[in-house]
Amino acid sequence: MKIFNYKHWVVIAAVIVVLFSSCDDNRNEPGYSYFNDMEASRAYETYSANPNYSDGKTMVGPVEGTVAIHEHAFGFEKTPEDEIKASSIENPLADQFDIEHAKKVYEQYCIICHGDKGNGQGFLYTSKKYPFPPANYLAERAMAKTDGQLFHNVRIGFGVMGAHGPQLSVDDTWQLVNYINHLQDQASK
Ligand code: HEC
User: Fold this and answer.
1) pLDDT tens digits, residue range 126-152?
2) What is the CA angle 108-109-115, rounded to 5?
3) What residues does ligand 1 touch, defined as CB less than 6 Å away?
């Protein structure tokens, strides 16, 4: 007795044809989708244009003047005058130096330019890939700066150095200030 008669084979062949029709050599084309309501979302995509908002964007920024939780209002500009104004800001973490964490953050964001000793001889500079001499924390200018000034420099930049505030939490910035002080202490020992 045969298990399949010719009608079965016709159905099996039809199924195989349908299955193979979903294969495609061209990987840049998604091919035909049978039920596309999952892939074609009706919601606006995060970065897409959006006519419902006045600025035409789906991702709405924070309301002007608001400060994120864990941030605090730091309304200073990248000017020498504002650096002086910031000089009196007290370092709230001066007594809570977490050297291990600070070192990790420093190695992540700063060592490439300022070097492991903070003397400005980081790889990006010594390899001549970055042309501006990074500040030497052990030189007079940096030694004379208060924690508030260093905080100002790191968060909104100094001279040709750009702002690092957007990449760093406020706490991590103070820990970096502690770390700069630590490197200065090490050097003067
Ligand atoms: C791409 C290279 C680069 C990186 C990365 C960088 N800096 Fe700088 N930094 C500089 C340069 C260059 C200057 C000097 C700018 C000038 O004199 O115009 C400087 C200046 C400074 C100063 C001012 C010191 C002084 O002598 O007045 C501080 C403080 C500082 N950087 C801290 C940091 C910290 C902390 C980080 C990591 C979060 C960092 N920088 C990352 C290049 C860099």
Assistant:
1) 999 999 999 999 999 999 999 999 999
2) 90
3) 109-110, 112-114, 124, 130, 132, 134-135, 141-142, 145, 150, 153-154, 158-161, 164, 176
